[in-house]
Amino acid sequence: MTKINIGPFDRVPHRSTELRLVSESDAGYVFAHVGTVPELHEVFTHAQIKQLIETNEIAVDRNWFEEGRAKARLTAGVSSLSELPREEANDLMRREYYVVKFLKREAMDKNVTRTDKSIVRTLRQLHAERPVGDVRCDQVRAESACAT
Question: What's the pTM?
Answer without folding.
Answer: 0.52
